[in-house]
Amino acid sequence: MVRLAIFLILVPFFLSAAEWTTFRMGPFEVYTDKNQNQARSTLNHLEQLRWAFSYFTGKQEPSTLWPIRVVVSRQPTSKSLTALNDGWHGFLNEKEDMPVEWNRQIVQLLINHNLGRMPKEIEEGLVQVLSTTEVSGTHIIIGQPPKDPDLNWARMHFLMTSEDYRSRVRVVIANLNKGVDADVAYRNSLSKTAAEMDQAAKKHLDASAVTTFDLAGKPLNAARDFTTRYPEKQAILRTTSDKNEPGTAMFLLEKGQLEEASQTAPQWSLPFYELSKKETEPGKKAGLLKKAAELSPRDPRLWTEFALLMMEYNRWEEADQAWAQALRASPDSETRNSIQSRRSAMVELRTEAEANARKEEKLAQERELQRLKNEAVERIRNAENEANSGSTPPPAKVEAWWDGPKGDAKLAGSLTRVDCLSAGKLRLTIQAQGKNTVLSVNQPEQFTIEGEQSALSCGVQRPARTVTVDYVRGKSEAVSIRFP
What we know:
- The structure is a single chain.
- Helix 4 crosses helix 5.
- The protein contains 17 helices and 14 strands.
- The chain is elongated and about 115 Å long.
- Helix content is 50%, strand content 17%.
- The longest helix is centred in the last third of the chain and has 57 residues.
- It is of the alpha+beta class.
């Protein structure tokens, strides 16, 4: 009886699933179980809105992180699109037009995923102007005023509907998109200053008449170019559900399955950010946080966290680059000033840290040099003590089979000075025939000393000692010294 009851519940769903159709283009998916004509018209509106965005921004085939899914049905129209099941979802009543709020959301999503951060007034103005876009077939009307037009709307409306400036809007946006200052962007593109643009916008806002611009839309035939598809039951369920379904990245994130979520949606920043908060190994933590910031380049919060982490690890170059990205992603002057202040503080910390590092390195070098000097002095003293006690056996005769360094020249004279260098190296000054010759001992472990008084002491030799030195002429390098 239980199985029969379950079957009877599911039968209506399976039967209705066969009636569902979907139409897709770009990031948009439109589903319907009744009105295909309205679904086609809805998709045409969405695609023409994207076409208008491309026209004014110069971005070809702009897309979004998640697909935008619209269900055309007899249900009430959703107030706004909702992030659900790895997409943006909304129900549109088949007798209603696309809500202005939906247009606003879609334009903002296109900005977020296709443009770098621009001044807040530019982005808000672009959203406001395009939010009231009207579409009829391939005919697009741009410029109907929103409910409460403001200066941001007036600035972009003036540029986008004016015959003198319309063609240059994309140049302005291209400059701003590269991080160029607004005043410079206006000068380069419009031969106007930012102050002059503000004055023009105020005058435009106060004008009684509102102009519109008729834009030739994308050449589409909704009946011909939108292919009818029959979605699987799982796709319908994810589109019409009011909760995240198993298997989606959003569901996995909800359940704390962060690794699985990052693999299911590798283009999504949030799982990598959440993973970075849990990671304790410094290298992995830095890699995850940087990945999250790169996937969401317009988020100054992520770049700020990455910059602070790099400062903690004393990786100053990477920290400075992250601060620069945080500045680039700042939506307003308040955020930008705060980040600039923290970046300036980092410069002071970096200068202090690098000075301390240089000081510590110098001290370490001095300690090592003193250690080597102490060892050299100790060896010399031990040799002198052994020589003075008479216990030192006579030096062994150098056998002919010796295969160490061999000199190609001899120098007989007086040893006047011995300089003890680091790592046991020596520098010998020998006076012969009225001039001084300086020879180096670069391989002390292979340098041989012969004679009864074979100890070498550092410094000036008092009195000078008679010696014969074998050396390599081309290198001025001594290989052996012999005392009488």
